[in-house]
Each structure stands twice: as C-alpha cells, then as structure tokens.
Amino acid sequence: MEKLADRAAKTALFDQFARIGKALGSAVRLELLDLLAQGERTVEDLAGAASLPLSTASAHLQTLKRARLVSTRRSGTRIYYSLAGDDVARLYVRLRAVAQSHLPDIEAARRAHLGLTGAEPDAAVEEIGRDELLRRVRDEQVMVLDVRPAPEYAHGHIPAAVSIPMEELSDRLAELPAGRTIVAYCRGRYCVFAYDAVRLLRARGYPAARLADGMLEWRLAGLPVDTSAA
C-alpha cells in the first residue's frame, strides 16, 4: 500500500497534468487555439474572429495563459497572444484525431460544419494531399489559393499561394487564371472555407480542388512557409 506522503505527491503530480486538461475542456478555448495556430493575434482580433464579447475572449485567454498554453507580448497598448509552442499545436491536432476516432457523434458534427449534407461524400469536394500539391506546383499545373482572412495569410502561407479571402472570392474571380486547376486551402482539416471555395469555383466553371488539410498541418509537417506580402 502506498504511503500517505507518496500518495499526496502522486496526486499533486497528476493535478499538474490536469491543469492542461482543464484548460482544454472548453469549446471556446479550443476555437481560440485553432485561431492562434494561424499566428499571433490581439484579444480584439480573436474576439471578432470567434464572435465573442471582448471580456469573454479575454477571460478564456487568461485560462489558457495560466496553463502555459499561450504566451503574450506587449506592443504599445496592445497585447498579442500566440501559442506557447509547436507542441501545443500538435496537442490540439492530436486531440481532434482522438475525438474523431472514438466519439461517434463527431462525424455528424463534422459533416454539418463542412456543409456535407445527406449522403454526399467528402469526395464531392475533390481533395489532394500535400505531396501531390507540391508535385503539381513544381510542374506548374495548379494555382494555389489561400482563402483565409488576409491577416492569417500575412503570418505565413504556402509559397506561391495567392491570397483571396473567402468573403471576397465571388467578387474577384477575374483574378483567377483560366484553364488551370485551382487548389484552395484554409486553416486546417476542419476549416470550412476551402470547401466553400471549391463549391463556388466549380459552380462558376473553374476546375478546383482543396488541399486535404490546411496551414496548421502544413506547418507541423515542416514544409516551407512564406511570410512575404500578398
């Protein structure tokens, strides 16, 4: 039988582990991590992107900061938040993968979020993998289209990608090349912007596909990231 002191020390250790679990135990905080995986943001930017009151966003960010999952820097009167490290991004990606593997309700929620209705398969929005994208870019077969908000593009994007945020795409179709397949990507595997972009492009007669995942997975794979202006 464990000694009382040994048991207390073990409980104290597991309490420390639990700090991370508690910080992750919120849909709002997971969405904030998802946004921060694209690059550092102010609390005002994050509140707007997540449709949160400023005070609510700030409170959730403080919870993440106490768990050392995010860090901050000050510039003048503004405070910028960022992920504390790539290990936090990998933890977030792994959490999603475990949920997808073990929770039966995830698939219905995923399909609803991505606009996959009824029996429509994922393949209805054609996807290509990272290796295939790199091959087609080398062979000049595709145009790579980043449909994330412009500030996220500025924090880092796939080299040679063109920035047209999803909300502007329908008004900027004239900027797209004729006769070349357009490969759209956004934040990550569960980001809806790329799905919506491919649907819109195909409806307007453009050959289009989406990257199977997104910028988060691209970064974690150690692939080149460009930070030059659009």
List the helices and strands and how they pair.
Blueprint: H1 4-24, H2 27-36, E1 41-42, H3 43-49, H4 54-66, E2 70-75, E3 78-83, H5 86-102, H6 106-114, E4 127-128, H7 130-138, E5 142-146, H8 150-155, E6 162-163, H9 166-169, E7 181-185, H10 192-203, E8 208-211, H11 215-220
Helix pairs in contact: 3-4
Kindly describe this structure.
By secondary structure, this protein is α/β, with parallel strands linked by helices. It has two domains: 4-88, Orthogonal Bundle (Arc Repressor Mutant, subunit A); 120-220, 3-Layer(aba) Sandwich (Oxidized Rhodanese, domain 1). The chain has helices spanning 4-24, 27-36, 43-49, 54-66, 86-102, 106-114, 130-138, 150-155, 166-169, 192-203, 215-220; strands at 41-42, 70-75, 78-83, 127-128, 142-146, 162-163, 181-185, 208-211. A five-stranded parallel beta sheet has the order 4-8-7-5-6. Strand 7, helix 10 and strand 8 (208-211) form a beta-alpha-beta unit. Helix 3 (43-49) packs across helix 4. The longest helix has 21 residues, at 4-24. The protein is globular and about 75 Å long. The mean pLDDT is 93.
Shape descriptor: globular
Write down the domain tally: 2
State the helicity in percent bands: 40-55%
Distance between the termini: 64 Å
Quote the beta fraction. 5-15%
- Placed side by side, the strands forming the largest sheet appear as 4-8-7-5-6
Structural class: alpha/beta
Largest sheet: 5 strands, parallel
* CATH-derived architecture of the largest domain: 3-Layer(aba) Sandwich
Secondary-structure element string: HHEHHEEHHEHEHEHEHEH
What are the segments in which pLDDT stays under 50 over at least 5 consecutive residues? Answer: none
How many helical elements?
A: 11
Q: Which CATH C-level class of the largest domain is it?
A: Alpha Beta
CATH level-4 homologous superfamily of the largest domain:
Rhodanese-like domain
- Rounded radius of gyration (Å): 20 Å
Please count the beta strands (DSSP E, at least 2 residues each): 8
Which assembly state applies to the chains in this document? Answer: single chain
Overall average residue pLDDT: 93
What is the CATH topology of the largest domain? Oxidized Rhodanese, domain 1
Protein name: Transcriptional regulator
GO molecular function: DNA binding; DNA-binding transcription factor activity
Domain HTH arsR-type: 9-103
Domain Rhodanese: 138-227
